[in-house]
User: Fold this.
Amino acid sequence: MLQQLIEKGVRITLEAEELLKNSDNKEQLLSKLYILEKPFITKEDVESALSELAPVIEVKRPSAFKSIAKEHDASIQVLHTKEVTGKSRTNGEIDDFISYFRSRHEKLAKLLNGPSKFPNVTLNEIKKYIGQTVRVIATISGKSETKKGNLLLEVEDLTSQFKAVISPAYGRDKVFEKSKYILLDDVVALVGKVQEPYLIVDDVEWPDLPITRERKLAENDLVVAYISDTHFGSRYFLEKYFDQFIEWTHGRGEAKELASKLKYIVVAGDIVDGIGVYPNQERELVIKDIKKQYDLFNDFVEQLPDHIEVIVAPGNHDAVRRGEPMPAIGKDLITVDVTSVGNPSSIVIEGLKHLIYHGTSMDSLIAALPNMSYNHPEKVMVEYLKRRHLSTIYGGNLIIPEKLDYLVIEDEPDILHCGHVHKNGYTLYRGTLLINSGTFQDQTEYQVKQGHVPSPALVPVYELKTGKLRTLDFKSS
Ligand SMILES: [Fe+2]
Ligand SMILES: [Fe+2]
Assistant:
């Protein structure tokens, strides 16, 4: 067979040659050959070699496998008003920053507005309430510790600025503990007594999700697989495990019942490793051409059963602008039939509202908040929902000041899907399912230095009707 392939013009690497010599399972050999050779030969090369050898290497689908998902039409609705694709209007000028922060303040203030025991006041009228307890909705524009160990906040709204103090004294230790979670650029409601020139804070409220929210399920018994951070092109990309995942979508291997219901695959960014994303990256790339990196993604989609719909959003390694919000990856790169959306984006799948956000701001939130770690991305995702914002600290990671703040979580999502930290994590928070879908990239040298241990090849798979979330391990299949 080796000779036949060489005659067909398929170039064989030494590694592939070893495999061909040492095994007589031709089907497995050819699939391995394609894996090993992929960066160097075209899919057509292998397919033409395969077709010649068809009687020997025909891939047999298990006869018991019947796709239920195939019987259903896809139900996907992209909420275009919630994302930036095609709508970026900023020049990065001072007016753009003003309208960006105004938009953030207005959207979050709307969520914080509500009945209160105390008068809701704006900062331009706060001095009329000296000696009284009031509630103000404010953006945190400065944060420092005083000599006495109190927290001093500079706050502003659309009318004026003021100062607020949070002290552990006089029985206020509870609010002082809470205040450790206040981030720069947070929009919060502060309840406190006006003692010029300060507001002495008694309580802090974030916009948050409503406490009583039922988890929503879908009518159709279909399955979504969530993936992210495939990093095609990286030398750490775990192609062997990724191909096991593709095999599973065809009902081969374990968890056939889930595969038969698989209708959607959602990809939350870092599709490719990119070019020039960090210094000396070229040493860690096996493919140094961005188009060819995306070709591996295009190949992946083509290898899936036709009835599976793929929804894809970019991350910080993808070939779109660096700052968030990011527009969808262009058709020049993703040439196959997928739903390409921005980062962040809102998509309704089978009636369930999905918020997809890559998670770049996890770095700055893990650094700034207590009790956060790269091992528990779901905890950071709870903080997104609590603040109803996906990237609170301006400058923590690059934000492009659009006229509207697309990073505000205006509507409550049924599912929040992130990636970026290469670690799986899940939780249920006030009726929203939070999923971090890990990675298909092995631990990089940088991650070794940082002490980050990724959880590759673990794919969360969600049954939309029953609400069961399971993790499939493609390292063991
Ligand atoms: Fe990544
Ligand atoms: Fe990332």
